[in-house]
Every structure is written in structure tokens, then in C-alpha cells.
């Protein structure tokens, strides 16, 4: 179970640790097989229920197995970015504390790294090491942060990097600005977490509603197959089933988009 969770989280606790973050999620061969096989089996069973035809079932299974892993990759990318954002929020606490103690921005990054737990923040711990390594070879902190923001694709990190760049250019009170910015970013990340918790119940209801048409049709086929026989023996019946299948797929896509709330 633990190994499976590691793969589904984009390998952040294992695969991503020790290598640079990349916003473009790459599915492993095992994930391709798992998600493709799962989608193919579900599509095959659903097509059999709607059409009672093995050829249609095999075609649906092949299409689903080829397309669903690409669709799933976007979800895994979003989960990866969400996890990085949560780790970034934790790292900001240490960075702000170091700045309050009077350290420079560069020194605050080194000090905050010492307080990090690599098991709780595996991605940011490695990325912080990369940033500090760049600082030690005289690269600018704003350039290092901008590179990290570009590779991670996390909006909060990108905003933070832009603010650092502005502060360095205008020679403002970096410690105060970063402290205020960190507070705002932390609040935003916390709100995003609360929204996800609030949507968890609705997402479960969404999954149940998406399964209900197939479940009801399966029950009718099991209890009263003669009642549905005209839908499988005539052209008009197959057209009706095709429309129903299309509506079921459309409702799934629409419900997924409705539950995707950006802050």
C-alpha cells in the first residue's frame, strides 16, 4: 500500500527525492500498465452493458487504455504541485524565522535548511540544497528561485520568486516584504487545503452519481433482460444506448471540471 501511494503521489517521497522537480509529470511503465489496464477493464465492462457486443467492448477497452493514462497524468501533476505547495508553506515558516533573527536572505535559506525534516518535506529539502549550491557558486538567489518556480509550475513559488526579484532590484526591506508575502502565501495555501477538504464529500457523491447509470442498467439486465431486449436488437435501440453512453461520459467530464476550483 505504501509503495502504491508513493507512485500515485508522483514519487515525491521516493522517486522525486534526490532529483530535480519537473512540472511535466512522467508516468512510469508500471503506472501506464496499471491505469491503462484499469481503464480498459472498466470500458470493456461498460461497453458490454450498453451494447452486448464483444467487438465494441474491445474497441472501447483499447481506446480507454490508450487515452486514460494521459488524462490521469494531469491529475497526478496537480497532486504533485499541491504537495510541493504544502511543503513550500512549511519551508516558509523556517525562512521567515531565520530572517527575523537578522540573517541575510541567502543566510536564511541555509539556516532554514538545517531545520527541515527530509522525511516531511522530501522535495523542498532537495530543492533547497540545489538553491544553496547555486548560491555558493555565486548565482543570484532570484535566478535560483525563478528556475525552481519554472520547473515546479507552482503559482505560489512563482509569485514568491517575482517578489524576491523586485525587492533585490529596488533594494527594499527584503525581510519585511518576505515576511508579509510569506504570510499571504501561507494563508492562500491553507485556504486551498480547506477547499479540498470541503469538496471531498462532494467528490464522493459525484463518483456515486457517475456509477449509478451503469449500476441501474446492470441491475435491469440481471433481473429483467427481456425488458431491455429491444434496446439491443434494433437500430433505434442501439442509437438510444449510444446517446445514453455519451451523456454518461459528458456528465463525468462536466462534474470533474465543476469540482476543479482554482483559488
From TrEMBL:
InterPro entries attached to this UniProt entry: T2SS_GspF_dom
Subcellular location: Cell membrane
Keywords, alphabetical: Cell membrane, Membrane, Transmembrane, Transmembrane helix
Membrane-topology descriptor: Multi-pass membrane protein
PANTHER family per the UniProt record, alphabetical: INTEGRAL MEMBRANE PROTEIN-RELATED (PTHR35007), PILUS ASSEMBLY PROTEIN (PTHR35007:SF1)
Any single Gene Ontology cellular-component annotation: plasma membrane
Chain segments annotated as transmembrane: 32-48, 54-71, 208-229, 235-254
Protein name: Type II secretion system F family protein
Pfam family, one: T2SSF
Domain named Type II secretion system protein GspF: residues: 95-220
Lineage: Bacteria, Bacillati, Bacillota, Clostridia, Eubacteriales
Ribosomal protein listed as a keyword: no
Top-level division of the source organism's lineage: Bacteria
Coiled coil stretches, renumbered: none
Organism listed in the record: Bianquea renquensis
Amino acid at each position: 500500500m505504501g509503495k502504491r501511494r508513493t507512485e500515485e503521489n508522483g514519487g515525491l517521497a521516493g522517486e522525486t527525492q534526490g532529483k530535480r522537480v519537473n512540472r511535466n509529470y512522467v508516468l512510469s511503465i508500471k503506472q501506464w500498465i496499471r491505469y491503462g489496464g484499469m481503464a480498459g477493464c472498466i470500458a470493456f465492462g461498460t461497453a458490454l452493458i450498453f451494447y452486448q457486443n464483444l467487438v465494441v467492448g474491445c474497441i472501447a477497452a483499447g481506446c480507454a487504455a490508450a487515452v486514460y493514462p494521459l488524462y490521469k497524468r494531469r491529475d497526478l501533476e496537480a497532486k504533485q504541485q499541491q504537495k510541493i505547495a504544502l511543503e513550500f508553506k512549511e519551508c516558509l515558516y523556517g525562512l521567515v524565522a531565520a530572517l527575523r533573527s537578522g540573517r541575510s536572505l541567502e543566510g536564511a535559506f541555509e539556516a532554514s535548511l538545517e531545520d527541515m525534516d527530509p522525511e516531511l518535506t522530501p522535495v523542498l529539502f532537495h530543492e533547497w540544497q540545489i538553491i544553496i549550491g547555486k548560491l555558493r557558486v555565486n548565482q543570484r538567489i532570484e535566478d535560483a528561485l525563478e528556475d525552481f518556480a519554472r520547473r515546479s509550475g507552482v503559482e505560489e513559488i512563482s509569485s514568491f520568486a517575482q517578489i524576491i526579484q523586485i525587492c533585490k532590484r529596488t533594494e527594499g526591506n527584503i525581510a519585511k516584504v518576505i515576511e508579509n508575502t510569506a504570510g499571504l502565501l501561507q494563508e492562500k495555501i491553507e485556504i486551498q487545503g480547506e477547499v479540498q477538504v470541503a469538496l471531498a464529500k462532494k467528490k464522493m457523491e459525484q463518483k456515486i452519481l457517475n456509477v449509478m447509470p451503469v449500476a441501474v442498467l446492470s441491475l435491469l439486465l440481471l433481473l429483467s433482460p427481456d425488458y431491455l431486449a429491444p434496446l439491443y436488437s434494433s437500430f433505434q435501440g442501439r442509437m438510444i444506448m449510444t446517446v445514453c453512453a455519451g451523456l454518461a461520459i459528458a456528465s463525468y467530464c462536466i462534474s470533474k471540471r465543476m469540482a476543479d476550483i482554482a483559488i
